[in-house]
């Protein structure tokens, strides 16, 4: 039997060709499908024709750039997906036996969270221990920090608690929180402030896509005496948040690491013990927990935290433990 031929004499399709068929079935457009897999349209079309020749059936009805699957094409898409999924499982099983993690891991980062010492240590060890794993860090805003986990645009994320129900997490660090004030605010020269002293200050607000409970918790709304917070300009990310403060539109509250991560002319950070603490979390969805890349990330994170506890009792940014939260933080 010649290489590449089955028992019946028909050339066997490649996994690559089956993947291209699945992309075409989703896009129903040669141009968009080709762009999605980063090949030219003629090359993509040639691969589909080769697949048709190997299978001995016409898969698509061609009419300009838009295409429709033939009945045979529609019938074979399901089988093609099963073959592609089976190959992925085979490779994953082989990687487990070889102790190797491959593929792509997309990690979200709320603002500068990926720049924190514990996050940098986790990413460095992950890259060193899994050289075949492609790691991409994507910036998240307040608006999409939770939704991108839900849509699968990121596999895991460095976030700040409290996390909403349905998200699992590994606790990375705990630190105090501070008030961010315009430098010429009459209270800016104080070493410590109370919430009562800030009662008349307008606080930046979040877009409606952000869970209200998350922002109310971080702004202590309502205040201990029952007074509601006066909210002002709406911001979508940390940069626009500190900009609103420098422009004297409002104040805000941030983790104490903001002193290092967001130093700006016209800003002052003041301790407010009543704000409580800020928790840093490595988050993922339950259904992604045991995927090889996410499992590797979780294990590396636990190793980094264990080493921090062992070698540095006073770890950077108040690392306190590696306990996983099964649902929220």
UniProtKB/TrEMBL annotation:
<dbReference type="GO" id="GO:0032993">
    <property type="term" value="C:protein-DNA complex"/>
</dbReference>
<comment type="similarity">
    <text>Belongs to the LysR transcriptional regulatory family.</text>
</comment>
<keyword id="KW-0238">DNA-binding</keyword>
<feature type="domain" description="HTH lysR-type">
    <location>
        <begin position="13"/>
        <end position="70"/>
    </location>
</feature>
<feature type="region of interest" description="Disordered">
    <location>
        <begin position="306"/>
        <end position="329"/>
    </location>
</feature>
<dbReference type="GO" id="GO:0003677">
    <property type="term" value="F:DNA binding"/>
</dbReference>
<dbReference type="Pfam" id="PF00126">
    <property type="entry name" value="HTH_1"/>
</dbReference>
<dbReference type="GO" id="GO:0003700">
    <property type="term" value="F:DNA-binding transcription factor activity"/>
</dbReference>
<keyword id="KW-0805">Transcription regulation</keyword>
<dbReference type="Pfam" id="PF03466">
    <property type="entry name" value="LysR_substrate"/>
</dbReference>
<dbReference type="InterPro" id="IPR000847">
    <property type="entry name" value="LysR_HTH_N"/>
</dbReference>
<protein>
    <submittedName>
        <fullName>LysR family transcriptional regulator</fullName>
    </submittedName>
</protein>
<dbReference type="InterPro" id="IPR036388">
    <property type="entry name" value="WH-like_DNA-bd_sf"/>
</dbReference>
<keyword id="KW-0804">Transcription</keyword>
<dbReference type="InterPro" id="IPR036390">
    <property type="entry name" value="WH_DNA-bd_sf"/>
</dbReference>
<dbReference type="InterPro" id="IPR005119">
    <property type="entry name" value="LysR_subst-bd"/>
</dbReference>
